[in-house]
Structures
1.
Amino acid sequence: MKKLKAIILAAGVGQRLGDTAESRPKCLLEFAGSSLLVRHLRILQHYGISDVILVAGYEAGQIAAELAAVEAALQIKTVHNEDYEKGSVISLSLGLQAVSAGDDVLLMDADVLYDYRLIAPLIRANGNCFLLDRKFESGDEPVKLCVKGEQLIDFRKQINKDLEFDFQGESVGFFRFTTETAARLANRAREYIERGDDSQPYEESIRDLLLDRPDDFSYEDITGLPWIEIDFPEDVRRAETEILPRLSDPE
C-alpha cells in the first residue's frame, strides 16, 4: 500500500463568519473544547496517517501556536500562503508542491466538523475518490457532485441547467488522489496561477481533471454521517446543536 499524506487547507480569512470567528482562522474554532484543527489531527492519527502538510495564511501565527501545544505523533509541515486573500487554488498548489513523489494524497478542507468514520472510505480507497452526501440543501452554496449511472460527470457549485444526471450530492471537501493524479493536479493548479486565474477556488482545477478523465474517479456515499462545513454564523450554531451531539469518538 502506498504511503498516504494529508494536506489540510487552512489559509482562508473566513470573512463570512464576521465577528463569530473573533479574528481567528476558521480551523481554530472550538467545539466542546477542541479546535477543528486538533480534531483533524486526532482523526488522522487514529487512522495511522503521520505526515501532514498544513497550508496556513490568515493569522498563521495563531495556527503555529496551536500546533506547538498539540501532543501528537505526527510530522506536520506548515506551508505559508502569502496570497491567502486570493483564490484557494493557490493553497492547493502550495500544498501539492510539498508532497514527495510516490505519496498518495488525502486533501481536506480545514473548516469541517465531522465524524471520524467519514474519512474511512478514503483511507481504504485504491484510487481517486470523492465523498458524496445525498442529503443537502439546494442552492448556490453547496459544491455539488453529479452522478449518471455509476459515474461522476460534474463537480461544481453551479451546475449547467441542461446537464442530465441521475442524482446529485454535496461534496464534503475531502478527497483522495493517487500519486499520478496529484502530480497532474499540481500542474493544473499551477497553470491557473500562471495564466492569472489565481482568484479561482481549488475545486475548479479538480473539476478539470474529472471532466478530462471521468473513468479515473469514483465516489463514496457517506449520507447519514454527521458533518458540516463552517462558513456562516448559522453553521457554528448548527455545528454545536445538531452535529456535535452526534459525533462518535475514535475507539
Note: The helical segments are 36-46, 60-68, 89-97, 120-124, 179-194, 203-212, 233-243.
2.
Amino acid sequence: MAIATVMTPLRFFVVMAVLFAALALNFVPRMDASGDEPHYLLMAKSLWLEHDLDLQDNYAREDWREFRSGPTEPHYAAPRKDGRPFPGHAPGLPFILAPIYGIGGRLACAVFLGLLVAGAGALALGIAREEGLAPGTALLAGLLASGPPLVAFALHIYTEAAATLALFGAYALLRFGRGPWPTGFAAALACVLPFLHPRMALVSLAIAFVALVYRKQGSLRVFALTSALGLMIYDAFWTSVYGVPTALGAYGGVPEDAAFNPLRAGIGLLIDRAYGLLPYAPAFAALLFLPTPRPNTLDAPAAWRAEVALVLAILLPALLWRMWWGGQSPPARLIAPLTPFLALWVARGFDTARPLVRHLILAALTWSWALFLFAALQPSRLLFINRRARPTRMWEALWPGGPLDVALPDLARPVTADWWIAAVWLVAFVAAALVSRTVFKRARSMSGTSA
C-alpha cells in the first residue's frame, strides 16, 4: 500500500510509459505490421514525405515492405470525386503520426501510442483521487484503465489509443475544468474524434451533451464556436475528397455488409473468445455484482449522466458495425475506449465491496496483465491478432490441447454449440448478479436497522 500512497498520476504515467516503451522495443522489430496497421503507417509516411494521401505510388514502390514482409493489397475506399483512389481508413491517426513517423518510423509511432495509453491510466488515477477514493483504489483504477483491452493498442498502430485519450480527456476537462479554455479544448477533442473513425461521430455528440450537463462551470458559447469551426473543417475536408460532407463517402454510403444484429454483436463483444471483453479483462465483470457505480461527490448526478452518455455513444455503433467479428485486430477493438470509464466504475465499488469480491477483482486484474505480458513478450506467436478466418491463438498457447477454446463461444463464426455456450455464460452471469445484489440489499438493510 506504500506504493499506492506515493503513486501520483505523473509517477504512474512515467512508470507505465517506460514499461510500454520497453515492450515496444522488443515487440515491434520482431513482428510484422498486420491488419490495418501497414495502411495507417503508409498514410503517415506519405503525409510526411509527400504531403498527400495519394498512395498509388507508395503501393507501386512497395513502401509497405518497411513494415511487413508479406504481400499487402491496397485498402482503398470509394473513389474521390476526381476518380483517384482514396485510402480506406480515416486520416486522423496518420495526420497525428506523420511527424512521429518522420522521427523514428513505426517504432516511434508505437511508443507514442503507448504514451497515450499511459496517459489514460494516469488520468483515471487522478480522477479517482479527485473523487476521494483511497490511494490503493485509485491505483487500481489506473491499472484497470491502462490495462486490457486498451493496453494491446499500446503496441499496435490502430486508432483506439488516440480515441480513448481524446474522449476521456474531453470528459475530464468538462467535469473538472473551469472557464472557457477547458471547454474549448474539450470541443476541439470532440472535433478530432470523427477524423479518427467515422463511428466516433456519435461520441462527439455525446461530448456536446456533457458540455451541456456542465454548462454552469464552462462556456457553452466557446464550445459551440469551437465545434462549429471543427464541423466546417470536417465538412470541407470530406467535400474536397468525395463531394459530400461526410466520411461515409469512403464507403459510398452505409456499408452494404453492415450487420444489424445487435444481439449477436452484444454477446460477442462481451464473451467472444477472440473479440470479447471479459475473456481478456474479467475484472469488469464485477460491474454486474457491484452497486450502481455513481461517484460519491457533489456532482454525482451530473457525472453519472455524462459517463453513461459517453459509454452508450461508444457501444451503440459497435453493436451495428460490420467489422467487430472479422477485422484483423487485437481483442475488443471497437469497445476499447470504454476501458477507463469501466475502470472508474469498478474502482468506485471496490472499497465497499465484500472482501471476496475485492479479492476476485484483484485476481482478475492480475490475470489480465499476466495475459497481456504473456502475449507481448512473444511477438512472433501473433497472440494479439484475431481475424474471422482464423481463431485466436491465445488459448491454445496458454493450454495446448486444453479446454479453454471449448469453454468460450466463437461468435465470429457461430455454430449451434457456440450459442449454447454463450447461453450458459449469460445465465450464469445473470444468476450471480441477482444473488449478489440480493445479498448487498440485505446487508445494507441490516446495517440500516442496526443504526
Note: The radius of gyration is 22 Å.
